[in-house]
Amino acid sequence: MEFQCDICSKTFSRQSDLKRHKFTIHGSSFFSCNTCDKQFNRKDNFVEHCRKCVITCKYCDANFKLQKDVNEHVNLIHTDKKFVCTKCEKKFAAKTNMQKHQQKCTQSTSLVIRSPQPGPSSRPDMDERTFRCRRCTARFANRRQLYLHGMQHHYQSGGGALQARP
Question: C2H2-type domain: from which residue to which, for each copy (predicted)?
Answer without folding.
Answer: 3-26, 31-51, 55-83, 83-108
